[in-house]
Amino acid sequence: MPSVKRISFMSTDTEQAPVPIGEISSGPSKAEEFLEKNQKLLLVGAIGIVIAGIAYITMSGLKEKAQAEAGNALMASTDESALSAVITDHPGSHAAGTAHLLIADSLWAADDKSGAIEKLRGFLSTFPDHAARPTGQAKLASFLVRNGQAAEAKPLLEDITTTPDADYVAPFALRLLGDIAVSEGDPEAAKNYYSRSAENYGSRFSPRINSLSKLRQGLVDFEEPVEVDPPAPQPTTPPEITAPTGQPIPLTPALPVEPTAPDPIELTVPQQPSLPAEEIAPPVEVNPPAEVNPPA
Q1: Residue 183, Cβ neighbours under 10 Å: how many?
Q2: Are 176 and 144 in contact (CB under 8 A)?
Q3: How far apart are alpha carbons 293 and 296 in whole angstroms?
Q4: Which residues in 232-266 are b (16+ Cβ under 10 Å) and which e?
Q5: Cα-to-chain-centroid distance, residue 232
Q6: Measured distance CA(205)–CA(212) in Å, rounded
Q7: Are 91 and 123 in contact (CB under 8 A)?
Q8: DSSP-assigned states of every residue in 180-232
Q9: Which residues pair with 24 in a beta bridge?
Q10: pTM of the model
């Protein structure tokens, strides 16, 4: 039991007894008493906190290592079977979620529309916290619209427009909602969606978003021209030409006149002049030499 010291002041009047005005405790404080009673419990708690911190750091390191291994496997994938192996070998990793999106694109390109849609639905249900979830929603909505399932796409698109982390795909979602409204015959709703896309995101991301949204907004009231059959050709009659005598001359095409061949021209070949006969010179008579008498 702690001792208590009493402090009192004596009155100047000796006939009255002293009256205490306060007490000061000289024993241990309540905090010291609490620490003394719960010293072992506090020590155990401190050790538990240290162990939990070490475990958290260890698990975080292991998770980061597993995520890195899954990412490397995803980067090395070159076909659909390799992407499926990433999903099987690294379940729950961010890389496995990305593999779902890539496989869905591959299935859609191969004209497996139902398989692509189911793959995206599996991604959204398995990876609710994946960073590419808004991209998966927009991709699934686009596939549904192109597959004639616009009613199922509208909730996905509306959710994108109200999600703060989905701003980068919100303009696309609003334009697609506007296209759906046009197909449903609601031009006012379509204009509202296009206007929101241009006003809320046109200046924040790219001028192209603004131009695309305004272009669609301007086409809402556009009516396609009605195809009209051309008028039937009217029969035309050639005008009649009257001769000087007043008698009409029918315009009948004249038959072509076959040209007549000209008379053949006889060509006479001039006869060559005959050459004069060669004159034969008469032979020259040569007298024999006179006989000469020898000298005597």
Answers
A1: 11
A2: no
A3: 9
A4: eeeeeeeeeeeeeeeeeeeeeeeeeeeeeeeeeee
A5: 47
A6: 13
A7: no
A8: HHHHTT-HHHHHHHHHHHHHHHTTTT-HHHHHHHHHHHHHTT--PPPP-PPPP
A9: 5
A10: 0.54
CA distances from 259 to 84, 254, 263, 266 (A): 89, 15, 12, 21
Q: What is the pLDDT along the chain (296 residues), one digit of tens a residue?
A: 444 444 444 445 545 555 555 555 555 667 666 666 666 676 667 677 767 666 656 655 656 666 677 778 888 878 888 888 888 888 888 888 899 999 999 999 999 999 999 999 999 999 999 999 999 999 999 999 999 999 999 999 999 999 988 888 998 999 999 999 988 989 899 889 988 888 887 666 666 666 677 667 666 666 666 677 777 777 777 666 555 565 555 555 556 656 666 666 665 555 555 545 455 455 555 555 555 555 55
Amino acid present at 231: P
93 DSSP 8-state letter: S
Return the sign of the alpha-carbon dihedral for residues 216, 153, 115, 73.
Answer: positive
**Token pair recorded at residue 188:** 């006012």
Alpha helices by DSSP H, listed for the chain, are 30-37, 39-75, 80-89, 94-109, 113-126, 133-146, 150-161, 170-183, 187-201, 207-219
Is the Cβ–Cβ distance between 169 and 176 less than 8 Å?
Answer: no
Per DSSP, 16 falls in state S
Helix (H, G, I), strand (E, B) or coil at 25: strand
What span, in angstroms and rounded, lies between the C-alpha atoms of 89 and 81?
A: 12
